[in-house]
Amino acid sequence: RLRAQFPDEIAHIFTRIGRPEAATDPMLNNQVDIMLELHPRERWRRARTKSELVEQVAQEVAKMPGLSPTFTQPIKMRMDEMLEGVGVRADLAVKIFGADMEQLNRIGRLVEAEVRKVRGAVDVALETTEGLPQLQIAIDRERIARYGIHVQDVMDAIEAALAGKVATTIVQGNQRVEVALRLQEAYRKTPEAIGRLLIPTPSGARVPLSQIAEIKIVEGPVRITRENGQRRVLVLANARGRDLGSVAEEVQQRLQRLNLPVGYWIEYGGSYEHLVSGRARLSLVVPATFSAILMLLILALGNIRYALMVFTAIPFALTGGILSLLMRGMPFSMSAGVGFIALGGIAVLNGLVMISAINQLRLQGRSCLEAVIEGARMRMRPVLMTASVASFGFLPMAISHGMGAEVQRPLATVVIGGLITSTLLTLIVLPTLYAWVEGYLEARAARRLQIALE
Q1: How many CB atoms lie within 10 A of CB 133?
Q2: Paired residues of 139 in beta bridges
Q3: N or C: which end of the chain has fewer CB within 10 A?
Q4: What does the pLDDT look like over 273-297, one tens digit per residue?
Q5: What is the DSSP track for 125-145?
Q6: Which domains are delineated in the chain?
Q7: Highest mean predicted confidence (pLDDT) among 27-41, 95-109, 336-350
Q8: Torsion angle of C-alpha atoms 414, 417, 423, 426, degrees rounded to 10
Q9: Measuring CA to CA, which residue among 90, 86, 55 is closest to residue 72?
């Protein structure tokens, strides 16, 4: 059906149903992995980007009854499950902890309803934890006591009839094969058929199982998931058309209004947890990096005043990077943070070249104003060439749409936007600032000298 509706986008569809034999695999029997192999982007007609295609496919899949789909990449899905635990396959996972499964499912449905109200939250689904048909046989102990039957005798008969019991062993060559016997399917298919199973009594009579036990089909838990020893239910969601950080923050604001019973609490996981931890690390790495840059500038120029002048390129570069992200509608991400770190080094380099040239001219006897004008003229071409080469080098990453483009675009956008503003600073603001500061210091030194001579 999907291939017929998207013939120019979808090349092949592969389906994996159920779970493998490995006991460590987290998949359930009622879960399906549907993998779409896409044609080259040049053939696409109904969508221009992957996000548009996913949105259109999601609309079609939503029309199919009985499915709760989540869209992701195969490797990313497995990595999320390995890092976050069983069942976590989405950008945002709301983890609900507590003791009672019925209460957890009730809270989970409330959380699911609140998450669906958040703009940008898609593929919202509550983890399937109930609804598995189970055969329940409740033995009436008073009735079996009247017949003199032991509970273990009833359990052994049920086990032999339904699951089978080893009756004998056959030797075939060097192998010993156990032979198990159980009732034919027709005699154990329904509760009524199972109820006709005859249970022997000490007196030699046989009593139908339905007379000494209640047999019925009930809905039981599909699975009971635990994390750190606590029962847990998940509500999963992906972010589409909006950055994950703002979606998660709005979800948290909405869920804070819920009055949870005592002993129940909510935690957040998925890719959002890595985003939070990454931001925390960047809050330490970025200041440390910029402090190291300032120390290196002081060592290179031998004067903290010149180092601070060059260091002013970093705020201008950061401003350009932020504006470029806003203009392209991109959220702050880990790759954008790395771009800001790289931008700081590139922006400082041009300022260092400019200041070094001006200082060299002053050592040759030029006045401050002459040195600034001549130094800016001499270093204009090298500064423009340095910024242009770096910008053109990052341009393919900034406009890419292939695999990994969601990581490359923010980094390249930050660097290109920051280089534009930092280059303007280096060519215009930095010489002007140098002329003001050094001119003021020269004038003050001249006045002091004149006063001393008088």
Answers
A1: 8
A2: 213
A3: C
A4: 777 887 788 788 888 888 888 888 8
A5: EE---EEEEEEEEEE-HHHHH
A6: 1-69 (no CATH), 132-221 (3.30.2090.10), 275-453 (1.20.1640.10)
A7: 95-109
A8: -60
A9: 90
